[in-house]
Design goal:
By secondary structure, the protein is α+β, with helices and mostly antiparallel strands. The chain has 1 helix and 6 strands; from the N terminus they run ββββββα. It has a 6-stranded mixed beta sheet, with no helix packed on it.
Length: about 100
């Protein structure tokens, strides 16, 4: 679990998955909340199709990211953008700090 900014995204074709592929994103880490610290992660996101849990990662946007064992993210596992107008950033930062404290116990 970490806060990071998407550096770039790329479609990766794969006929074995629904939609014919997935999105690979390179994310620069701003703050590790839980897990082994790294400066950058390559993550996998599903395609933003109706009914899917895609996090819809976009370059230049800051997110809180929850990775599974494949380094995959989704909005269904909690991954979400930070700093969007619908959220109060100060409240989000406090929530993330609380998550970090709880995970360290």
């Amino acid at each position: 679990m970490f806060v990071g900014v998407v550096r770039g995204t790329q479609f990766v074709p794969d006929e074995r998955v629904f939609g014919g592929g997935h999105i690979r994103a390179v994310v620069d880490v701003r703050e590790m909340l839980k897990g082994d610290p790294k400066p950058r992660f390559d993550v996998i996101d599903g395609l933003p199709l109706i009914g899917m849990c895609s996090a819809s990662l976009r370059a230049g946007i800051e997110y809180v990211l929850f990775l599974d064992e494949r380094n995959a993210v989704s909005m269904c596992n909690g991954t979400r953008p930070l700093g969007e107008k619908t959220y109060d950033r100060a409240v989000q930062v406090r929530e993330l700090q609380d998550l970090k404290v709880r995970s360290e116990r």
